[in-house]
Structure formats: C-alpha cells, structure tokens
Design a protein that fits this description.
heterodimer, A: mainly beta, six-stranded mixed beta sheet, five-stranded antiparallel beta sheet, 11 strands, B: 112 residues, mainly beta, seven-stranded mixed beta sheet, 45% strand, globular
Chain lengths: 112, 112
C-alpha cells in the first residue's frame, strides 16, 4: 500500500505560469517532507523540504505548502521555466527513522 | 555541493553474470542507501547502512547484497544477474543530523 501518493503522472504548463505539484500521504507518523527533481539518466537532486511544525516553506521560485489535517502537500513553482521540465518526487520521513518513502513522481513539462 | 559517485553509469550484461555496482561519497556521511527505480515508479529502498559494518535490507526484496567496510564506500553486488534485475540503481547518502539524502548519478543496468 502506497504511503506517499502523487496522483498526477504528468503536468504541462506554459513558461511564466505557475506549476502546482501535489502529494498526499497516509502515514500520520510522517513529520518531514522533501521534494526532489530528477532529469532522465541522472540521480534526484534535493529541492526543498518542510517540517510538520510549519505550513509553508519558500526558497526562491519554489514554495512548499503543508496541510497536516488533509495529509497533503504541494509544491508551487513560480514562474515556471523550460529548465524546470523534469520528474518531481515527493518524499516523507518520520522522526527517528533513517529512511525516506517516495511517491511515483510527476513529470512536469514547461513549454516556451 | 554533494560528492557522491557511482560506476559504471551504464552496464549491459548477460544473464548469470556476477556484477558489482560501485558507490563512493567524500562527505563523510555515516548513512548510505541503495534504491531501485523504474520509469514512472517510486524509488524503492533495497539496502541501507548506518555506518561501517552495518547493513540493513530495505522495503523491496532484492537478491543483491551490500557491504560497508569503509565509511565512504557502499558497493552493491548481484551474484547472478537476471533480466528482472534490469533497472536504474541509485546510491544516496546523508549526514546524521539531516533528512536530506544526496544522490549519485545512478547506474542503468540492462540484463540480456
């Protein structure tokens, strides 16, 4: 049973507009969440994270929102750029655990 | 900047061969991880290590084995490769005080 779900396999956005990638989780023990970006034939690179004591974290064009009651988080990219085209993975961890649980990813395509 | 290396980047090998995928990091991280990932799927944890002489099996059953004799080195071995082992293998590491894992570029393995 998937504990981290990214229900949109793909998303297409025009350059300059906002990209919103969604992630849902089922395990109430999760208290730290991360977003990774992955290009084909490369390893994932860390983008941004959020602790469950916050509901928003911002880093440049990237903002992550966390809704604990809904067990939902989202990644906003504003403005979107063609170089943002990649697969985005949501990941979660629980305090005291060394491992991450990943979603299946959402492929973002930003067209000029 | 994360420094974690994987070799080879690509490998095509016949069924029944023994292979070792190399992973090294220069950050002095205690915790290291191996994931298996197929297109459109989540990263599946197959092995991890808390430090030297520590190895644990991950969530996904795997016929591979790992060793951790040195902090910086975490090789993965398949004694007898099969077509079902065809996948991308990703190595990662992290420091004790952080949730963020840093990934290597991956090894794309094809077993014919």
């Amino acid at each position: 049973d998937q504990q981290v779900k990214q229900n949109s396999p793909s998303l297409s956005v025009q350059e300059g507009r906002i990209s919103i990638l969604n992630c849902d989780y089922t395990n109430s023990m999760f208290d730290y969440f991360l977003w990774y970006k992955k290009y084909p034939a490369e390893g994932p690179t860390f983008l941004i994270s959020i602790s469950s004591i916050k509901d928003k974290n911002e880093d440049g064009r990237f903002t992550v929102f966390l809704n604990k009651s809904a067990k939902h988080l989202s990644l906003h990219i504003v403005p979107s750029q063609p170089g943002d085209s990649a697969v985005y993975f949501c990941a979660a961890s629980a305090s005291g655990y060394s491992t991450l649980t990943f979603g299946k990813g959402t492929m973002l395509l930003v067209s000029p | 900047e994360a420094d974690i290396y994987q070799t080879p980047r690509y490998l095509v090998i016949g069924t029944g061969k023994k292979i070792t995928l190399e992973c090294s990091q220069t950050m002095g991280h205690d915790k290291m991880y191996w994931y298996q990932q197929d297109p459109g799927m989540e990263l599946h944890l197959i092995h991890y290590s808390y430090g030297v002489n520590s190895t644990e099996k991950g969530d996904l059953s795997s016929e591979s084995t790992v060793s951790r004799i040195r902090t910086e080195h975490f090789p993965l071995t398949l004694e007898s490769a099969r077509p079902s082992h065809t996948s991308q293998y990703l190595c990662a590491s992290r420091s004790a005080g952080s949730y963020e894992q840093y990934f290597g570029p991956g090894t794309r393995l094809t077993v014919t």
